[in-house]
C-alpha cells in the first residue's frame, strides 16, 4: 500500500486496531500521497496512537482531508491537541469520543479563525451548556463551517438558545443538528421563527 497510487479511501473501522496498529498506520501514511480519506472508527486506539497518526498528517505532505477516529478510547485531555494537529483537514469527526466541555472549548477556539474545516461532528460527547457557549462564540466569527452535528449531547434548552442567538451573525452555516439535547421543542421553534422571520438564507436547524 505504501507505493499504491490508485487507492483514495481506506475503511479500517471495527478492526480492533490498538496502539501498535495505529503506529504502523502512522508510518504508512508518511510515504503515501494519494489517500484522501481514512476511517479508523470503533477500534481500540488510545491517546498515543491517535496522536502519532495526527502528528504525521500535520508534519508530512499527505493528501488526507478526512479522518475519522471516533469511538476510540482517547483520553479527553489529549483532544486539546487535536485542533492544532488538524489544521489541514476539512472534516472533524469525533462522535462518541468522551470529549466533554473542556475539549470542545479547545476545538471551538481553533475553529474561530480556521478557514479549512467545513464539517464538524461531535455528537454524543457529553457536551453541556458550557460547551454550547464555546460553540456559540465560534459561530459568531467563523465563516467556513457549513455543517455541525451536536446530536445526543447535554446542551439543554438554554444552551440551544445561546447557539441560536449566535447564528444571527453567521451566514455560512447551512445545517446544525441539535436533536436529543433536552430542548423544549415548542418554545425553541418559536424562538427560531422569531429570529428568522422575513429573512432569507435560513439554516436547517433540527432539534
TrEMBL record:
It holds the Pfam family LRR_6. Keywords: Repeat. InterPro entries: Leu-rich_rpt (IPR001611), LRR-containing_regulator (IPR052201), LRR_dom_sf (IPR032675). It comes from the Eukaryota. Transmembrane segments: none annotated. The keyword Lyase does not apply. The keyword Repeat applies. This is RNI-like protein.
Amino acid at each position: 500500500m505504501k507505493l499504491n497510487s490508485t487507492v483514495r479511501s481506506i475503511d479500517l473501522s471495527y478492526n480492533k486496531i490498538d496502539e501498535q496498529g495505529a503506529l504502523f498506520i502512522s508510518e504508512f501514511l508518511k510515504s503515501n500521497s494519494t489517500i484522501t480519506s481514512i476511517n479508523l472508527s470503533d477500534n481500540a486506539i488510545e491517546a498515543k496512537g491517535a496522536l502519532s497518526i495526527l502528528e504525521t498528517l500535520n508534519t508530512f505532505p499527505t493528501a488526507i482531508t478526512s479522518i475519522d477516529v471516533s469511538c476510540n478510547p482517547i483520553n479527553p485531555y489529549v483532544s486539546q491537541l487535536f485542533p492544532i494537529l488538524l489544521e489541514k483537514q476539512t472534516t472533524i469527526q469525533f462522535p462518541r469520543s468522551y470529549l466533554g466541555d473542556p475539549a470542545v472549548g479547545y476545538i471551538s477556539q481553533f475553529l474561530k479563525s480556521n478557514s479549512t474545516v467545513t464539517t464538524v461532528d461531535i455528537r454524543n460527547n457529553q457536551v453541556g451548556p458550557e460547551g454550547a457557549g464555546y460553540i456559540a462564540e465560534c459561530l459568531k466569527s467563523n465563516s467556513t463551517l457549513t455543517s455541525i452535528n451536536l446530536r445526543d449531547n447535554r446542551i439543554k434548552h438554554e444552551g440551544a438558545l445561546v447557539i441560536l442567538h449566535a447564528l444571527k451573525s453567521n451566514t455560512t452555516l447551512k445545517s446544525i443538528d441539535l436533536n436529543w439535547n433536552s430542548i423544549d421543542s415548542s418554545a425553541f421553534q418559536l424562538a427560531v421563527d422569531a429570529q428568522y422571520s422575513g429573512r432569507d438564507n435560513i439554516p436547517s436547524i433540527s432539534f
